[in-house]
Amino acid sequence: MLVNNAGIGGGGPIEIASDEDVRRVFETNFFGALRMIRAVLPAMRERRSGAIVNVTSQGGRVTFASAGVYCASKFALEAASESLAMEVASLDVRVVIIEPGVVLTPIFSKRDSRPPSDVPAYVRAGRRFVMNVGALIRVPTMPEEVAATILEALTTEAPRLRYTVGSEAESLLRQRAALSDEEWIAIANIENDDEYMQRMKTIWGEKLSAS
Q: Rounded to an integer, what distance in angstroms lies between the CA atom of residue 77 and that of residue 29?
């Protein structure tokens, strides 16, 4: 069994994300996972058994302003995982995608210490990304919940490809699916910060809606 759980954040707004920043995020979140998959898959294929668990993120299904590089790396891993699941199903090798919300892990201490952006046009987006993460990290999904979900995914008699972890992630994916692309973009551009956060609290669901 392989569990790809390594991940880092960073990147910032797309216009000002350097090639170095983009490569750094993708090197860990995407290319590192692919290297591990290619290392273990020949043996799994040979013995016709095995499981590959890729921990992505709610950010692998939904994007946020000022987090495009991180989300892109997770979207990429989601796509690769789904394709891989098709390729190895006949070999009795399982692929599992785990999609956590905001989990209390060292990923936040590994974030770039620089401000999200010092370009005036992008300051609001960076501030709001920090506001969302800050609100959710006060009521985080715990690592133990992710571990329990991985165990469930590997032992259930009714396996699925994707498993979401955390009520905030479940609410986000459900709410986002009910919105058009244009509505989602419009929410990000609500003028007033307080109004924006009130709207986001309804999207994040029970963890924030009462606060």
A: 8
Q: Got the DSSP string for 95-124? A: EEEEEE-SB-SGGGTTS-SS-S--SHHHHH
Q: Provide the domain count of the chain.
A: 1
pLDDT in tens, 89-143: 999 999 999 999 999 876 655 555 455 557 899 999 999 999 999 999 898 899 9
What pairs with residue 96 in β-bridges? 53
Which residues belong to the active site? Answer: 70
Tell me the one-letter amino acid at 118.
D
Which pair of tokens denotes residue 195? 């109004």
**CATH number of the domain to which 120 belongs:** 3.40.50.720
The pTM (predicted TM-score) of the whole model is 0.91
Note down the domain range covering 189. 2-209
